[in-house]
Every structure is written in C-alpha cells, then in structure tokens.
C-alpha cells in the first residue's frame, strides 16, 4: 500500500481527510499538501462525541492549511441506521463488546465518500495507524461505496514515529499544536459508548483507576435507591422511555444519562483485534447496556426456541462482520434482512430496575407474546393434558433407550 500511495504523489488534486483537530490529523494536513501537492478538505462527523471536541475546529483546520472544513451531524443516522440494527440483531463481539467504535466508522466513512463527491475530491485519507481495526473499517467502506477513490494513509509511509516527531513537524510548518493536556489513555467516544486503552490498561492484571471513567459513576457511589425504567419497543427497535416517545438519538442520550448515574455499562475485556493481536480495553456503554437487556428480554416472549437459537448463532456472525468493518458487505445486509423479519412481532414493553451497576428485569409484556398462562400454569387446563407427556418422553428418549439396551446386551 505504501508503494502504491507514493505512486500517487503529484497526481491528486483534492483529498478529504477524516479530521479530529488533534495532533495527528493537524499534522496530516500540511503533510498531504507537502507530499502530494493537493488541496485538503477536512471532514468532521458529529456522532455524539461531545461539543467540546467540535469547538474551534474550522480555525484549527484552516490554520493547518486546509482549504475548508465540513462538519456533518450524523447522530440520528448513526443511531437509527447503525446502532439500532445491531441492537435488533443482538450483535455482541466476543461475549462483551457492544461494538461502539465498530459501528461509528462506517457511518463516518460513508459521509466522507459523499463529501468527496460534493467537493470533487479524487482521494480520501485517515489518520489510523497500521496496528488497529479502524483502518480496515474505513477502507472497506471506501472500497464498497466508491472503488474509484484513492486512499492515502500517512501512517504507512511517513517518517513520523511518535508524538514528539509530530510536534516537531508541526512547529516546522507553523501548525498550531493542540494545547489540550494529552490524556494518558487512548479514548474514542460517541453517542453509544466511550472506550479507554493504554497506560496501565496494557497490563491485563491491573485494575483500572477509579478516575479513568467518564460516563459512569462508580457503582459503589451510585444512588442507594433503585430506579425503574420502562422501555417501549416496536418490531425489535426501542421507541420510548417511561411512555415518552423519543427520536433514536434523543432516546439514547436520555438512557446514557440515567444509566451513567447508576454506574451501568462498564466492561473490562481482552479482545482479539482483526489484525491478529490481543488488546485490553475498557468500555462504558450505559444506555446501550440498558437497551440490550430490554430487547433480549422481550424476545423471550415473542420468539420460539428454534428461532432464538438460530438468531443467537447468526448474531455472532453479524457481530464479527461489523467488528471487521464489513458493514456494507452483502452478507451483513442479508443477515440484517433476516433479523428485521424475525423480530417484526418483537413489540411490547420491558421494565428494568437499575441499581448500583446492575440491570434487572422486573416485568415484560407484548401483544404478540407466545406465553400462555393457561398452558404454563400448574393448574389443570384444557389445552395441555399432562398425561400426554408420557408418550412424548418415550419417543423423545427412544435413542437413549436403544443405546442403553445395546450396551447391556438386551
């Protein structure tokens, strides 16, 4: 890839850069102009990372040499078209990870492709390193949506090896260096979650420091009284909180606030990155944890045993595809069609009890419930005759009886 990229030098006219305003992307702007002789359009997506990260970006971008900055609010699209489908599918990577960063990258990359068309750019660029998953997620989206676009990845070809090199390069090219205090952690935040990596977390044996968390209070410090929430769901997708209908992004924001107050949604895990190495990360997903608990519980009423088993098995593949950046892969889209169809009757409400880091289901109801009290009751009923169980057990256990007879010489 590096050789291919260098072959583009002097041939590109305009590049759209995924821009955060941090040190790395601030340095990439003059580096692209110096090495590729092209105009640079900076692009920033608002996926709910917080207003502070968006302040002063246009001035920073232009001071770094960009010809313009494009900012798009993708919050509603992010939740409705990316987060909610994963929720409906029950997609969880390696038993714990609710795919916060994995879902955000394709919505950002898709918007970059759209901006590239609008401004007449012939290339896109990102500041991901060669060790992480995000490089794959960005580039697979570029390939799927516009294979004609060239992709430039500075980290694969420049001589900058660390923060000090980047600061030196910035000073040399009169680029304003961000004055914010460098965090000891590598963080990624959006409307769904906040991730933490680096520093002591690189040792799986060490407990995270209490002051590392930013979205959730320590469960020990959470309120001493539980809080009850009712989540309304229609066809597998959440629509209301405590009877109040909300837009997807507004609903998630409210649950993040409530869940964070009760210390909900902390996950500490060692995961397998797509590139082969293991990494340890800590995730805060307060609203998402609440929604997963509610959606899963409602399915216990609306889906039969065989359907749940098949759905759960396909959810694993769905999560793998999303984690690997294959959002626009036909297989993921086909799995999504299955999930949408199979949950069309997953409509109802679930009441949850939040208390010191835990989420407990207290009630669930659905107009499409397969649960029948007249059948499940221990009292006698007309629909289920307990005497029928004898014949069923004889037939169901026939293979076991035959095997036992064989072993005993009968």
From TrEMBL:
Q: What is its EC number?
A: 6.3.4.5
Q: Which GO terms describe its biological process?
A: argininosuccinate metabolic process; L-arginine biosynthetic process; urea cycle
* UniProt keyword Ligase present: yes
Q: Which SUPFAM superfamilies match?
A: Adenine nucleotide alpha hydrolases-like, Argininosuccinate synthetase, C-terminal domain
User: Is Amino-acid biosynthesis set as a keyword in this record?
Assistant: yes
Superkingdom of source:
Eukaryota
In this chain the Arginosuccinate synthase C-terminal domain maps to 185-402
Q: Which InterPro entries does this one have?
A: Arginosuc_syn_C, Arginosuc_syn_N, Arginosuc_synth, Arginosuc_synth_CS, Arginosuc_synth_type_1_subfam, AS_cat/multimer_dom_body, Rossmann-like_a/b/a_fold
- Arginosuccinate synthase-like N-terminal domain mapped to chain residues: 14-176
- UniProt keyword annotations, A-Z: Amino-acid biosynthesis, Arginine biosynthesis, ATP-binding, Ligase, Nucleotide-binding
Write down the top EC class of this protein: ligase
Return one GO MF term.
ATP binding
Pathway linked to the protein: Amino-acid biosynthesis; L-arginine biosynthesis; L-arginine from L-ornithine and carbamoyl phosphate: step 2/3
Pfam family membership, one: Arginosuc_syn_C
Cellular component GO terms, alphabetical: cytoplasm
> What does the subunit comment say?
Homotetramer.
Q: Which HAMAP family match?
A: Arg_succ_synth_type1
Q: What's the name of the protein?
A: argininosuccinate synthase
Which species is listed as the source?
Cannabis sativa
Q: What is the lineage of its organism?
A: Eukaryota, Viridiplantae, Streptophyta, Embryophyta, Tracheophyta
């Amino acid at each position: 890839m590096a050789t291919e990229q260098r072959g583009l030098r002097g041939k590109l006219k305009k590049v759209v850069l995924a821009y955060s305003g941090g040190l790395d992307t601030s340095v990439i702007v003059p580096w692209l102009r110096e090495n590729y002789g092209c105009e640079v359009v900076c692009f920033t997506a608002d996926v709910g990372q917080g207003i502070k990260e968006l302040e002063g970006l246009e001035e920073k971008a232009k001071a770094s040499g960009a010809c313009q900055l494009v900012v798009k609010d993708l919050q509603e699209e992010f939740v409705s078209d990316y987060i909610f489908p994963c929720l409906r599918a029950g997609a969880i990577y390696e038993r714990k990870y609710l795919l916060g960063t994995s879902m955000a990258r394709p919505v950002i990359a898709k918007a970059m492709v759209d901006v590239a068309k609008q401004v007449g750019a012939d290339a896109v660029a990102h500041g991901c390193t060669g060790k992480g998953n995000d490089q794959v997620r960005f580039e697979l989206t570029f390939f799927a949506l516009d294979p004609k676009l060239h992709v430039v990845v500075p980290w694969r070809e420049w001589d900058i090896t660390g923060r000090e090199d980047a600061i030196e390069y910035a000073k040399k090219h009169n680029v304003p260096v961000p004055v914010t205090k460098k965090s000891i952690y590598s963080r990624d935040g959006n409307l769904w979650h906040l991730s933490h990596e680096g520093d002591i977390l690189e040792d799986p044996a060490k407990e995270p420091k209490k002051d590392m968390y930013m979205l959730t209070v320590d469960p020990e410090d959470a309120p001493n009284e539980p809080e009850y929430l009712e989540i309304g769901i229609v066809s597998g997708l959440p629509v209301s909180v405590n009877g109040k209908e909300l837009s997807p992004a507004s609903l998630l924001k409210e649950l993040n606030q409530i869940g964070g107050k009760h210390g909900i949604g902390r996950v500490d895990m060692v995961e397998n990155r797509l590139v082969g190495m293991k990494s340890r990360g800590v995730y805060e997903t307060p609203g998402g944890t609440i929604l997963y608990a509610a959606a899963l519980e409602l399915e216990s009423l609306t889906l039969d045993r065989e359907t749940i088993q098949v759905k759960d098995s396909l959810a694993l593949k769905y999560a793998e595809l999303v984690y690997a950046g294959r959002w626009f892969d036909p297989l993921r889209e086909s799995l999504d069609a299955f999930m949408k169809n199979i949950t069309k009757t997953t409509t109802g409400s679930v009441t949850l009890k939040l208390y010191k880091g835990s989420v407990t289901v207290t009630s669930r109801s659905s107009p499409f419930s397969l649960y029948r009290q007249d059948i499940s009751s221990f009292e006698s009923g007309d629909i289920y005759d307990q005497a029928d169980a004898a014949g069923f057990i004889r037939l169901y256990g026939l293979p076991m009886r035959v095997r036992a007879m064989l072993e005993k010489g009968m």
